[in-house]
Specification:
129 residues; 4 helices
Length: 129
Amino acid sequence: MSGRTVDIEKIEVVDRHRTDLGDLTDLANSIDQMGLLHPVVITPEYRLVAGERRLSACKQLGHSVIEATVVTCLADASDLLIAERDENTCRKDFAPTEAVALGAQLEAIERGRALASKQAGAAKARAAK
């Protein structure tokens, strides 16, 4: 496996089983704010193996290139199908308590940032007088 930046238009999306990508707004916003955290996966021939929603969100954002992991071990059709299946099913959503704990931690961080920004603004206003 190797990673590289590739021309987004070179990536071929063929024989996919997911026909409904759903609403990409939240994913596109996340990529826009945080960057692409998990590269798409392609073959050396630029065939998409995993990451169609990420690819589509990047296209929606107007990106011309995308980070990709290039895999050479997925040579036959069954391996490609297994990779597509696993990418979409071998995951676990947060439990409600985990989501609440994560939200509380984010809130504390954002509260600290807001306070620092407010103090910096006040200091700047005092200096301008």
